[in-house]
Write a structure and sequence with these properties.
208 residues; alpha+beta; Glutaredoxin; Glutathione S-transferase Yfyf (Class Pi), Chain A, domain 2; 7 helices; 46% helix
Length: 208
């Protein structure tokens, strides 16, 4: 498989899952602003939407959108249990979380990375939306569960970790949310997470 990624972007979730599943893959960095891959290819010919991740699962066969990529990977190795079986209520719960992370939490971080300086009422509005969405995650973990679906790690946890990790880049201290803080600590203890972070230059004391 060939993973098109941008360091620290949401494509990091796919890398974490690929490593968790011990699937062989090649990673190709993308400059989404220039629209080119590290090899010099026109990325929009690979993914016309221009963003990451994109996963080439067979020659010329591309899967895009984080929830789709992550579920594809989990279903590729079902015995690993990174996604409940299709057609079950547990699978619906996974899809609920994947959609929330993608459509609400991820989107709430977006304005901080668009290059514009946030100020005044717009800054207040954006901050309020982000904090409300982080509150939603805290509420979801508040029953003492270790991971989003309970006691078992799933692909949704990889995506959640990556998005919440962006808080450190915008000055939001996750310590104010104790359940989230504990979740992030558990995630950072996972070898696959540390290996993925190191591979993208985000964990300097680890070998990639």
């Amino acid at each position: 498989m060939l993973l098109y990624f941008k360091p620290g972007a949401c494509s990091l979730a796919s890398r974490i899952v690929l490593i968790e599943l011990d699937l062989p893959f090649v990673a190709m960095a993308v400059d989404t602003q220039a629209g080119t891959t590290k090899a010099g290819a026109d990325y929009r010919r690979i993914n016309p939407k221009g963003y990451v991740p994109a996963l080439e699962v067979a020659p010329g066969v591309i899967v895009t959108e984080n929830p789709a990529v992550l579920q594809y990977l989990a279903d590729h190795v079902p015995e690993a249990g990174l996604a409940p079986a299709a057609g079950t209520l547990d699978r619906v719960r996974l899809q609920e979380w994947l959609n929330f992370i993608s459509a609400e939490l991820h989107k709430a971080f977006g304005p901080y990375f668009h290059g514009d300086v946030l100020q005044g009422p717009e800054k207040a509005r954006v901050e309020a939306t982000l904090l409300r969405r982080i509150d939603d995650v805290e509420a979801g973990l508040s029953d003492g569960r270790s991971f989003l679906l309970g006691t078992v790690f799933s692909v949704a946890d990889a995506y959640l970790f990556v998005v919440l990790n962006w808080a450190s880049f915008i000055g939001v201290d996750l310590a104010r949310w104790p359940c989230i803080s504990a979740f992030m600590t558990r995630m950072l203890a996972r070898p696959a997470v540390r290996k993925a972070l190191a591979a993208e230059g985000l964990l300097q004391d680890e070998a990639a």
